[in-house]
Write a structure and sequence with these properties.
The chain has nine helices and 14 strands. With 278 residues, the protein is an alpha/beta fold. Strands 4-1-5-10-6-7 form a six-stranded mixed beta sheet, sandwiched between helices.
Length: 278
Amino acid sequence: MSYKYIIIDPGHGGIDYGYMKGNRPEKDFNLEVGKKIYYKLNQSGYPVFMTRDSDITLSNYDRYEYINNLVRNDSALVILIKVSDENKDNISIIRSIKSVIDSKNDIYDVFKAIGEVKKRVLINDNSKDYYAVHRVAPLNSDVIVLEFGYNYLLSGDNNEIINSVSNILISHFEERVFDSNIYDSYVVEKGDYLYKLAKRFNTNVDVLKKINNLGTDFLNIGEVLKVPKLMNDIYIVKNGDSLYSIAKKFNTDVNKIKDINSLISNKLMINQKLIIPR
């Protein structure tokens, strides 16, 4: 399958602690690993997003809404980060029972370098995937669940395995030309320079030069550059919020918020979660 996006989904979060080993909750480990993988892929110029990048509570419905609203009619590789309470030291790569192997471009095959690739089904119904994200993922996407053995929770340094996961993805996609809709257009203003823009758009100078075919660091005022799209935010509605005040806060448009969240009215509820387009 050809993917246009990579979506990192750190499991659990907020009041949902997940598995506990010692004094460390799974939610913190999942977020730490997810953010490091996201950073490495983002710095290499890949179209990568996260369902959460902070310690917030997300229901399965919130996650699937985020994924579905982002993917729409495109295709994505979703990577769910989890810790297994049954596995001690190894990493398992869980694929859906619906996934189809492409012998010429099999993402699962390359993950064999770090762990066993297998499928998991419900105990009382082996016709259904164990993980809900496998059961409800868009048909045009693939979901990989990276199950880390619970001893990884106690390890102070997981950079080696994080680098392995990141390098597998970078190597697998290094020849891929991603669709242009992963970029926004930016018009160079007075005082702009590449390092400043790289920080603004959460990337680096080399990526900006690569995607814009720049031979030098010199920029012209009025020049149009391609810049990576920024990750969407997830905002929890508070008392007194309105779509207008939220749009103003995030420097976006009310209609864009309504569109990405499939809202048919301007009415909001306290604690409602909204995807904020960036």
